[in-house]
Design goal:
The complex is a heterodimer of chains A (about 775) and B (about 170). Chain A contains 26 helices and 20 strands. Chain A is of the alpha+beta class and about 775 residues long. Chain A folds into 6 domains: about 1-105, no CATH class; about 120-275, Up-down Bundle (Four Helix Bundle (Hemerythrin (Met), subunit A)); about 275-340, no CATH class; about 350-405, Orthogonal Bundle (Helix Hairpins), CATH 1.10.287; about 410-585, Histidine kinase-like ATPase, C-terminal domain (Heat Shock Protein 90, 2-Layer Sandwich), CATH 3.30.565; about 590-755, OB fold (Dihydrolipoamide Acetyltransferase, E2P), CATH 2.40.50.180. With about 170 residues, chain B is α+β, with helices and mostly antiparallel strands. Chain B has a single domain (about 1-170), classed as Beta Barrel (OB fold (Dihydrolipoamide Acetyltransferase, E2P)). Chain B contains 5 helices and 11 strands. Classes of the chains: A alpha+beta (about 775), B alpha+beta (about 170).
């Protein structure tokens, strides 16, 4: 553990136990943040984040923040992100800090600035919600949540006017706006952010007692809620079409009103901005904002409705105003029916898992009944029909259950698209990201884990792979570089391929760099694949210069570690000058798998169908041996090593050792083919992989268990694991341990158990 | 080994802490006890799927209502003779604490007997038997009217020993 790590843990535990009112405790945390900030000068955004945390704590201590608890939450969130960087090696560039910390994407402001800064003019970009390439699920979650907050703010606002608990209500409204503001800042939804911010400022004045929120002021607050609602609608619309929504018309008047009040609370506008007929008319293009303002200034009776004013002043015909009014009513009615994107219910994942497990049990119970010979023998037509009906419903339920666990990778991909856009802007390269297979479904647990490694690899491709525009035009390539991101199922795995048409990996450069860094000895013969894997070594980076994005020598090794933690692998192919292809292969873990059910020594195993190339029955004369041990078969000119699963797994024959019949299943993994010798093929099965749990995590030759139709468990063979196990054993078998050549694995595994475990299991072993 | 060290330091107070309800079961003619709070359920023996290249005392895995859980053969674990399965043989599903959280495991026993309320003063620390008998799985020995019950520290039985074992295996040492 490094010093910053220790210090960070120290801070984390302090924060955990600290009380928000415990000032000495807080100041200790403040000092530690400061200390850590000075210690971690070379960590990108880290020192800034640490300093920002320290500042925020200072503000909490000095009572300068509007809501201590929410600021405290911000610090907690920030700490989690910092921990991610320091302890787990997340890239600091990718870190997303809470908006309130003041480090987040542009547009957000720190809490301390809430009641101080107040831009006079609204820059045009502040009116635009751009959701092209935004994370759909995140944004729609935000929209749904914001609507809930607005509804509760509205309710509280009504309570405020009628009820007695003024302070409680106003604090609640403030919090609602504050939450919306924070999330909008995070998602870079500027119009929402700006309106929420100004409304919050107004409410803050109300909390401090500068103004009393009632009557006309409450109207303004109601209007803010309405405006935010319309912005939510707009955001939803923009999200649906993946484009922009211009909120300028919606927000301009409310912002004006809000800012006026904030600037001088004594000026309480009696004519609030509620009358949106004016906006409507502007929308319809019959009158301009200036004209309306002018008309408003000129009108004598302040209570007069704007439509009337405009008609009276002859600016707009009465009919048009009537139409606008009708449309306005229509909009209100539409809104009241509450047409939302999609009704969502949040379910605890544990419950979901339990449901799916129970469905699995139902399927088994159903098949036991359905295949019961006794029952089927005497079944009347009616019983048979009922059973088949039950079967149909059960299957349907099973499919639904399985689908519930799976989510498309789309959301993850969209985040990457966004990252590429930001990246190209920073690096000045023109890169187009093309995505394929966004609908490929992956288990929820994987989706959560692939984001970071994919982000790293995409960054790597954009930053190292794709050349600058000048370089590209020199080599006659299209000026815009392309990065293809694909997700697909293959070989019982899920593959993510990142392919770029950049400069490709420079083998010589990689080798010389590796030699220079002392990672390999000079003059070593290596295959292309071996050379490429060097880039995954810690401390390796070939980027000529360290950019903001990558080239710090951390990253690819982290990617590799993350992928390996998911029991996956990365394969690289590359052609100098033409581009590289990184393929990240991940197991399906909980996803559905098509498998070939096989019988080996009366035990049932499942071989992932996608790894299976073919199967053939094995005749003894097909086998050639090497050193009397290594067996291979000649399959149409291709020599395939044979792996006898029964020996490899140390399974002991129940009867005759000489099999009359056995079958070879030819499987492929990482372009390596081997033949697995099994006793019998029992057919194809589609099953859900169940984890065997941590107890068997190191049994890499088994990727999980599948529940078979009789309720028993069939183990799923991990082809990659079997190949490496076989070669490992083979390497040891060649050490010259001739006593065990007949059944080396079985004997060895027995020995392993007995030597490793001191308790008396020998009699047991000897009996085997 | 920590377990033995701390166990020796434990006084009467330690025994009082161990007082409580125990599920007792038979194993090769001996009576063992499990803290009842660790026991999730008792099920009849079902088909156990053998997992290759694991220690003998790992019988395999079973499907417990859609959940795959490992089953441990306590006879093999304690080096007792192998026995034929009878209709009394059953699997006690226990919840054990591991470093990462709790884990359900089945343990194969000859027969379950009863649930006993054992008082603190009835529990003694396991005597030292020398190197042959490993006592760090033993929470204490309960002396009750019907005889002596060996009270197991099931967390120690199921976790500490086998994890390094499995690691060794996969590394092929």
């Amino acid at each position: 553990m490094t010093d910053p790590e220790l210090l960070l843990d120290d801070i984390a535990s302090d924060i955990m136990v600290a009380d928000i009112e415990d000032l000495p405790g807080l100041s200790r945390i403040y000092e530690k943040f400061e200390k850590m900030a000075t210690q971690s000068k070379d960590h990108g955004i880290l020192p800034n984040a640490l300093t920002a945390c320290a500042e925020l704590i200072k503000k909490i201590i000095l009572n300068e923040v509007p809501d201590k608890n929410s600021s405290w939450k911000v610090i907690n969130e920030a700490l989690t992100v910092i921990q991610g960087i320091v302890r787990d090696g997340h890239p600091s560039e990718a870190a997303v800090f809470p908006a309130e910390l003041g480090l987040a994407p542009v547009g957000s402001q720190s809490i301390g600035a809430v009641s101080e800064t107040m831009p006079e003019e609204e820059p045009p970009e502040n009116s635009i919600i751009n959701l092209a390439g935004a994370d759909a699920s995140l944004t729609s979650d935000f929209i749904n949540e914001a609507r809930e907050h607005l509804a509760s703010a509205e309710q509280n606002l009504m309570d405020l006017e009628t009820g007695s608990d003024y302070d409680g209500a106003i604090n609640a409204i403030f919090r609602s706006f504050h939450t919306i503001k924070g999330a909008a800042g995070f998602l870079d939804l500027k119009p929402i952010l700006v309106v929420a911010h100004e409304s919050e400022t107004l409410l803050d004045l109300g909390r401090k007692g500068t103004v009393h929120i009632e009557g006309a002021l409450a109207d303004v607050a109601f209007d803010s809620i309405d405006v935010l609602r319309r912005l939510m609608d707009g955001a939803e619309e923009a999200l649906a079409k993946g484009g922009e929504f211009n909120g300028a018309k919606i927000i301009s008047s409310i912002l004006k009103t809000l800012r006026q009040i904030i600037k001088d609370p004594s000026v309480i506008p009696v004519r609030a901005v509620r009358e949106r007929v004016g906006d409507k008319l502007i929308d319809m293009g019959v009158v301009s904002q200036d004209k309306i303002d002018e008309a408003l200034e000129k009108r004598k009776d302040p209570e007069e409705r704007i439509g009337e004013t405009l008609v009276k002043q002859g600016l707009v015909p009465a009919k048009t105003v009537a139409k606008a009014l009708r449309e306005q009513q229509q909009v209100r009615r539409d809104k009241s029916t509450g047409a939302t994107v999609k009704e969502m219910v949040k379910i605890d994942t544990e419950r979901l898992d339990r449901l799916v497990d129970t469905i699995g049990e139902l399927v088994i119970a159903e098949s036991m009944v359905g295949q019961d010979e006794e029952l089927l023998g005497n079944a009347s037509h009616k019983v048979a029909r009922n059973i088949s009906h039950l079967n149909k419903i059960t299957r349907e339920l099973q499919e639904m259950g399985m689908a519930m666990r799976l989510v498309p990778v789309r959301a993850t991909f969209q985040k990457l698209a966004r990252a590429v856009r930001d990246l190209t802007r920073k690096s000045g390269k023109a890169v187009e990201l093309k995505m394929y297979g966004e609908d490929t479904e992956v288990d929820r647990s994987i989706v959560e884990l692939i984001g970071d490694p994919l982000m790293h690899m995409i960054r790597n491709s954009v930053d190292h792979g794709i050349e600058t525009t000048e370089e590209r035009s020199k080599t006659g390539k299209p000026a815009i570089g392309t990065v293809n991101l694909r997700a697909y199922h293959k070989g019982g795995n899920i593959h993510f391929a990142i392919e770029d048409d950049g400069r490709g990996l420079d083998k010589d450069k990689i080798t010389s760099k590796a030699v220079e860094r002392g990672l390999i000895e000079p003059g070593r013969e290596m295959t292309d694949q071996e050379i490429y894997t060097l880039i995954f070594l810690p401390g390796f980076s070939t980027a000529a210069k360290v950019t903001e994005v990558s080239g710090r020598g951390v990253g690819m090794d982290v990617v590799k570690r993350n992928v390996e933690a998911m029991r996956g692998s990365i394969e690289i192919t590359s052609e100098a000058g033409r581009g590289s292809n990184f393929i990240m292969k991940l197991p399906l873990t909980l996803a559905i798998i098509d498998g070939m059910l096989v019988d080996i020594e009366d035990e049932k195993y499942i071989i992932p169908t996608l790894s299976v190339v073919e199967s053939l029955s094995l005749a003894p004369d097909m086998i050639s041996t090497v050193y009397g041990r290594g067996e291979l078969i000649n399959l149409r000119g291709e020599l395939l090593p044979l792996v006898r699963i029964n020996q490899l797994f140390g399974l002991y024959p129940n009867g005759a050792t000489d099999k009359q019949e056995s079958t070879v299943v030819v499987v492929e993994e990482n372009t390596r083919k081997i033949g697995l010798v099994v006793d019998k093929l029992l057919g194809q099965r589609q099953t859900v992989i169940k984890s065997l749990g941590g107890t068997f995590a190191r049994q890499k030759w088994i990727s999980g268990g599948a529940i078979l139709s009789n309720g028993n468990i069939g183990l799923i063979i991990d082809i990659g694991g079997v190949i490496s196990l076989a070669s490992e054993i083979d390497a040891k078998g060649n050490d010259g341990d001739h006593n065990h050549t007949s059944d080396p694995i079985a004997n060895r595994s027995v020995r392993e158990f007995t030597t490793a475990e001191a308790t008396a299991s020998e009699p047991e072993m000897a009996g085997v | 080994m920590n377990e033995t060290g701390t166990a020796k330091q434990k006084t009467r107070v330690g025994s009082l802490e161990k007082a409580g309800k125990y599920l007792t079961f038979k194993l090769a003619g001996e009576e063992y006890g499990l803290e009842i709070l660790k026991v999730r359920e008792i099920i009849g023996v079902m088909d156990i799927t053998h997992v290759p290249r694991t220690p003998v005392y790992i019988r395999g895995v079973i499907n417990l209502r859609g959940k795959v859980i490992p089953v441990l053969d306590l006879r093999a674990k304690f080096g007792l003779e192998k026995a034929e399965q009878t209709d009394q043989t059953c699997i006690v599903v226990v919840e054990v604490r591991t470093g990462e959280g709790t884990l359900q495991m089945g343990i194969l026993v000859d027969a379950v007997s009863e649930v006993l309320d054992i008082k603190g003063e009835q529990i003694e620390d396991a005597p030292a038997f020398g190197a042959d008998v490993n006592t760090h799985f033993i929470l204490g020995i309960g002396k009750v009217e019907s005889g002596v019950k060996i009270l197991l520290d099931i967390d120690a039985v199921l976790t500490e020993q086998e994890i390094p074992m499995l690691e060794n295996l996969s590394e092929g040492k």
